[in-house]
């Protein structure tokens, strides 16, 4: 991958200088993961940072004998940085929801580069603060109706990872159990609400491509304003 294409694909590197990008790419590894494969294991030590060139993954934590999905990430995002920044075992694992194309950069090189390139360092802080703000919004909505929390999650996914297809926005059709965990609603409510949204023609699904299309964003945004 060329430095210019790399910086365009990953917002983290928008402000990085060309020398930084060339150095990182020279040590980067690209590979694919099939759906269902665990990319990172909980409690393993961080030896790389991973960047999503395509596909969808879920970040989850083990709770007892089960797993709880904390976030869903897609093209242009990254993960694995926390374990190398605080030099501790990973507290979550990451599993592919679809076929995923990844770019990994060795941890030591990534840390060294952050110290050398102040623009990259600043940009990473900005993106981590953005994640915290999204978490704060979810917390603020924790006592709201399930429909409001689900609308917030769908709109956030569309804004962060959606692909414009005509007047629709396409995202991955996230499994109900994972969507429920991320939205902080019950799986039963997710199934019921998604069926209602499809009846209203606000969304539609394509089982053949496992895609979800947000066909009418306005009422979803209006619903969110009720919060």
From TrEMBL:
GO terms for molecular function: DNA-binding transcription factor activity. Gene3D superfamilies: Jelly Rolls, Winged helix-like DNA-binding domain superfamily/Winged helix DNA-binding domain. CDD domains: CAP_ED. This is Crp/Fnr family transcriptional regulator. SMART domains: cNMP. Residues 12-131 form the Cyclic nucleotide-binding domain. InterPro entries: cNMP-bd_dom, cNMP-bd_dom_sf, Env_Response_Regulators, RmlC-like_jellyroll, WH-like_DNA-bd_sf, WH_DNA-bd_sf. One of its GO terms (cellular component) is cytosol. SUPFAM superfamilies: cAMP-binding domain-like, Winged helix' DNA-binding domain. The lineage of its organism: Bacteria, Bacillati, Cyanobacteriota, Cyanophyceae, Nodosilineales.
């Amino acid at each position: 991958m060329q430095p210019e294409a790399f910086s365009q694909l990953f917002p983290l590197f928008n402000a990085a200088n060309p020398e930084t990008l060339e150095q990182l790419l020279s040590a980067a590894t690209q590979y694919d993961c099939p759906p269902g494969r665990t990319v990172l294991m909980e409690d393993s030590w961080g030896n790389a940072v991973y960047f999503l060139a395509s596909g969808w993954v879920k970040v989850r934590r083990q709770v007892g004998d089960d797993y709880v999905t904390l976030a869903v990430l897609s093209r242009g995002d990254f993960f694995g940085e926390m374990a190398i920044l605080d030099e501790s075992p990973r507290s979550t694992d990451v599993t592919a929801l679809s076929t995923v194309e990844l770019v990994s950069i060795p941890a030591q090189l990534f840390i060294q580069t952050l110290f050398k390139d102040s623009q990259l360092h600043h940009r990473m802080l900005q993106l981590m603060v953005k994640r915290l703000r999204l978490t704060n919004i979810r917390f603020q909505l924790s006592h709201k109706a399930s429909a409001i929390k689900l609308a917030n999650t769908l709109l956030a996914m569309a804004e962060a990872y959606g692909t414009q297809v005509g007047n629709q926005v396409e995202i991955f059709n996230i499994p109900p159990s994972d969507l429920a965990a991320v939205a902080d609603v019950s799986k039963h409510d997710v199934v019921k609400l998604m069926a209602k949204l499809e009846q209203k023609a606000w969304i539609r699904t394509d089982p053949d491509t496992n895609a979800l299309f947000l066909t009418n964003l306005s009422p979803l945004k209006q619903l969110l304003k009720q919060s």
